[in-house]
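[job 0412] stage=fold_complex status=start
inputs:
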Amino acid sequence: MIVNCQNISKSYGGIQAVESVSFDVEEGNIFGFLGPDGSGKTTLFRILTTLLLPDNGSARIDGFDVVKDFRKVRNIIGYMPGRFSLYSDLSIEENLDFFATVFGTTLKENYHLIRDIYVQIEPFKKRLAGRLSGGMKQKLALSCALIHQPKLLVLDEPTTGVDAVSRKEFWDLLIGLKEKGITIIISTPYMDEAGMCDQVALMQKGKILSCDKPDEIIRKDGQQLYSLKAENIYQLLKDLRKYPETDTVFPFGQDLHYTSKEKDPDLEKLKSYLKERGHEKLVLAAITPGIEDVFMHLMEKENPLNEKL
Amino acid sequence: MKYTQRSTRHHDVVIDVQHMYKRFGSFVANDDLSFTVRKGEIFGFLGANGAGKTTAIKILSGLSKPTSGEISVAGYNVYNQTEAIKRNIGYMSQKFSLYDDLTLAENIRFYGGVYGLSRKVTRERMDELLEQFGLMDFKKSLITSLPLGWLQKLAFSVALLHKPSIVFLDEPTSGVDPITRRQFWELIYQAAEGGTTIFITTHYMDEAEYCDRVSIMDQGKIVALDKPQKLKQEYQAGTIYDVFLKIAR
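[job 0412] stage=fold_complex status=done
writing structure:
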C-alpha cells in the first residue's frame, strides 16, 4: 500500500470541501478520482502533497505521514497541479534544470524516465515556458514532476479542456509510466477515463460515492438500464418523462438511457406507449451501465431532490 | 453571382461563411473555411486544441476581423457591422460567465444594460428567468451562494436575455457534473426549438452526438462537416469520438 488515507476532512469557512475521505492505493496502480468541479479533488490532492493541512484524519505516503514527515513525502512524490505553475520566464531546459537541482539530481541522471515525453518538446528547449502551447506546457509540467524519479505521481486534472485526441495521447504516456513502476493518482471530470484506471473513486460534494475497480463499481451498482433510440430523440425524451413508470431518463450520446421504477418493467407496454405517440424507428435494448451511468445513479441516491428542470 | 444563388436558396441561413481566411504573420489560423448554419440549428464546432476554433469564433462574434472571405452573421457582415452582430448574438464560456461579487439580480441587470435592454424589459426578463429556475428567493444573493451546476444553466439563460438569434457556447459544460451537463443540453434543445441558433464547442464527444450537424477542424481547415449519423457512416465509426480520432490524429 503506497497511499493510505483515513477519514480526511477539510473545510473552508462554512464549506465542507472534503468530508471523511478514506482510500488506499496499491503500488504500481493508476488510481483515478472522477468528479465535477467543486467535488473536493484538488483539496484532497493538496493535502496528500503536503501543501494543505487536513482538519481531521491522516494520510501516509509510502509509510510517511503527510503532516509530520512532510519533507520526506515531498521527496517521493511528483505533483502536477491543475494550473500551470512552472516558471514562465525560464526556458524549458532551465525549468527542468531548476527542478532537478532542487531535488539534488540532474536531467542526465533521470533522462530515461522522461525521455518519451521530453523528446516531444526537446527541439524547443530554449523557448520560454510562458510561450509554449497548452499541450507543450503540459508535457513540460509532467517532465518536471518526474525529474526526481518519484514513487508516486499526483496529477490534478491534467486532461481538463484538452481535446479527445490529445487526451488519448496523454493517457498513453501515463500507461508507459505505469509500466516503469510509477504509481499514479489522477483526477478528471471525464468519466470515460475511468476505463484506463485500475481503481477509481467517484467524488461528489467532498465525499467518495463509491471506490473500487471500475468493473466492480458497475457490478455493485446493479441497476437495470435500457437504451432507447428513435427518429426524434428530444421528443422521445419528453414523452418518456411523462410515462408514469419512468424513474430516470437522460440523453447519452446518440441514445437515451432509461431506468424504470418497476423491478421487472413491461417493455411491450412501454413500446406501444411510445408508438402511440408517433415514434418511428424505435430501438429499445437492455444494456450494461457505464461509470457515468453509475455516477449519475449515485448522485440521485445521495440527493434525491437533485434539482430537476 | 454564385453567392446570390446560394442566399436565395437558403433564406433561413443565419451564419454564412465563404472562404474565410485569418492569417497571423505567416501562420494561417483559419484556412479557407466555408460553411453555413441555419436558424434553430445546433451546430457543433469541434477540433483539436490549436486547430483554429477560437480564432473563428472571435471573428463570427465580431471581436476580430478576418483576413479575407465573405462572412455574414445574423445578416450583418463581420467587417464593418460588428456592433450590430454583437447585439444579435449571445456568448457564454466555461471560463467567463457571471460575476462572483454581484448578486443574481445585479448580474442580470448588468447584462440587460450591456445589451441595451430597457429597465422595464430587463425586469420582466429577470422575473421570467428566475421563475423558470425557481430562484426568486436567491435574487439578492451573491451568485457564489448557488451550486456550481446552477451557475452554468443560469449563465446560459443570461446569454439569451436579449433574445439573440445566435448564441455561441464555448465549452459551456467543462467540469460540470454529468446530470447538470444533461440538464444544460435540455436547455439548449429548448432554445433551439424556439428558433435560437446554437453554435457550440465541446471536448465531450458524447455531446457532439446531440448536435444537428458537427464540423471538425484540423490545422486551420474544416476537414469534416455533416450530421453525426452521416459522419459515422462515412468514417465507418461507432461514435463521433471514433470519427474524431480518425480525423484529428
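[job 0412] summary: Chain A touches chain B at residues 35-39, 133-135, 160-168, 189-191, 204, 234, 237, 250-254, 292, 295-296, 299-300, 306-309 (CB under 8 Å).
[job 0412] exit 0
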